[in-house]
Specification:
By secondary structure, the chain is of the alpha/beta class. The chain has a single domain, classed as 2-Layer Sandwich (Nucleotidyltransferase, domain 5), CATH 3.30.420. It has three helices and six strands, in the order ββββαβαβα. The chain has helices at residues 63-77, 94-101, 111-132, and strands at residues 16-21, 27-29, 33-42, 48-55, 83-87, 105-109. Strands 1, 2, 3, 4, 5 and 6 form a six-stranded mixed β-sheet that branches. Helix 2 (94-101) links the parallel strand 5 and strand 6 (105-109). The longest helix is centred in the C-terminal third of the chain and has 22 residues, at 111-132. The protein is globular.
């Protein structure tokens, strides 16, 4: 049986967070190389709580970066969520370990279930970088 689609209205603020990769293409810097941006978002409000840049090729934030990302999220309401949703097959080590250390249950879901939450953030980010490069 197919699970019901997730939607922001199914959550209370700070009940669940979502970790996801914000960028579709790597962000290139001359000095430090290329990076991916991993974001933490509140599931109810779709508010971005924090982000970390990880080198392209790293599959996820290190445990240190993951801990810093979770602390950024905590700083907004001074509490952690009950659940952290991650795309299935992603963020299986550092972020999971850091979340579980804070008694956050990590639930891997198909990335398609997260689209309703993250689409606007991804589109806004892409539009911003295209404008920065003078693309239409």
């Amino acid at each position: 049986m197919k699970s019901p689609a997730m939607h922001p209205e199914h959550f209370r603020v700070n009940e669940a967070w979502i970790a996801f990769q914000l960028n579709g293409a790597p962000i290139h810097t001359e000095q430090d190389g290329s990076f991916d941006v991993i974001c933490l978002m509140d599931a109810a409000s779709c508010y971005i709580l924090g982000n970390v840049f990880i080198p392209v090729g790293a599959s996820e934030p290190s445990e240190v970066d993951a801990t810093r990302l979770l602390k950024e999220g905590w700083s907004h309401k001074k509490q952690y969520p009950t659940t952290l949703f991650v795309p299935r097959g992603q963020f299986t080590t550092g972020l999971t370990v850091a979340a579980e250390r804070h008694h956050i249950s990590v639930e891997a879901v198909p990335e398609s279930q997260l689209t309703v939450f993250v689409r606007d953030a991804r589109e806004g980010f892409q539009d911003h970088f295209q404008a920065q490069r003078g693309e239409a």
